[in-house]
Design goal:
Elements (H helix, E strand, L loop, with lengths): L8 H12 L6 H8 L10 H8 L8 E5 L7 H4 L5 E6 L2 H13 L5 E5 L12 E7 L7 H11 E10 L7 H7 L10 H9 L5 E9 L7 H11 L5 H13 L2 H5 L2 E10 L5
Helix pairs in contact: 1-8, 2-5
Length: 266
């Protein structure tokens, strides 16, 4: 009889990533966005919700994997002796350092590293967080790395539902985009690792439908859909003109917050 223990969820994830047709973003894509994040407030309802659910008791250090410009680590740096931002985008790390300097923070370090690079020199920290950074090629390897670098606790957020583009917009343009792997993969991979994670959900900012005008919306949808045909653009225009403000706003993006304390692991 086959059971859940016979399923290799890491292998299934890898197959799903290929089927989704989403190529990995090169660091240069993030480098190009980094400058606009210098001097910008990194506080958001999403960041506040993640931080409010984190346990800092007994913790002196934090490793923020896929840190970007510092949305999580800079907002908790005043609670800790040392925070480290790890990212494969040199531009984002430069933005993080600039934001740290502007905030007068002297306990912030950065490490330029990708998920599949050598992490042997990455220091262990009391808390490890990977916020919206888990769309990787090999989720089993990624979770094992986070677990290995944490002395106490790990926090990971992952998209729920597999779509960044609101389903209403997908229906409007007449195209169903392939879903990305959902958060449940992470739960099952962790189960196989002997980790019993806690699970919570965070509703955050909405997607492309929050655009202030049609042209901005069309640009965002074109990017998410990796190209719109003229017919799809016309359909989107018709939807936009007929939609109410609430319909244009769309549904919030939901994120699963998956966390575990190493002392509770099997």
């Amino acid at each position: 009889m086959n059971t859940i223990d016979d399923i290799d969820f890491s292998a299934l994830w890898r197959s799903h990533m290929v089927a989704s047709g989403r190529p990995p973003k090169p660091a240069s894509d993030w480098d190009a966005q980094a400058a606009r994040l210098v001097g910008k407030s990194l506080r958001s309802d999403y960041a506040d919700a993640v931080i409010a659910r984190m346990d800092f008791d007994g913790a002196d250090s934090l490793l923020d994997v896929g840190c970007g410009a510092g949305t999580i680590c800079l907002n908790v740096a005043d609670r800790l002796q040392r925070v480290i931002g790890l990212d494969y985008s040199a531009g984002m790390l430069a933005a993080l350092r600039a934001n740290a300097n502007a905030a007068g923070l002297s306990n912030v370090d950065t490490i330029e590293r990708a998920w599949d690079d050598d992490w042997r020199d990455v220091p262990e920290c009391d808390i490890v967080v990977a916020s919206r950074a888990s769309l990787v090629v090999d989720i089993g390897d990624a979770l094992a790395r986070l677990h290995a670098k944490a002395r106490q606790r790990v926090y990971v957020t992952h998209l729920v539902g597999g779509h960044f583009l609101d389903p209403a917009i997908q229906r409007a343009i007449g195209r169903r985009l392939p879903a990305l792997p959902d958060y449940i993969y992470l739960v099952n991979v962790l189960h196989a690792m002997g980790v019993q994670p806690k699970l919570d959900y965070i509703d955050a900012e909405t997607g492309p439908a929050t655009a202030p005008d049609f042209e901005t919306l069309a640009q965002r949808v074109d990017k998410s859909a990796r190209g719109l045909s003229d017919e799809e653009r016309d359909r989107l225009r018709n939807w936009f003109d007929a939609a109410t403000p609430a319909q244009r706003a769309g549904r919030p993006l939901r994120w699963a917050l998956i966390s575990w304390d190493k002392k509770d692991c099997l």
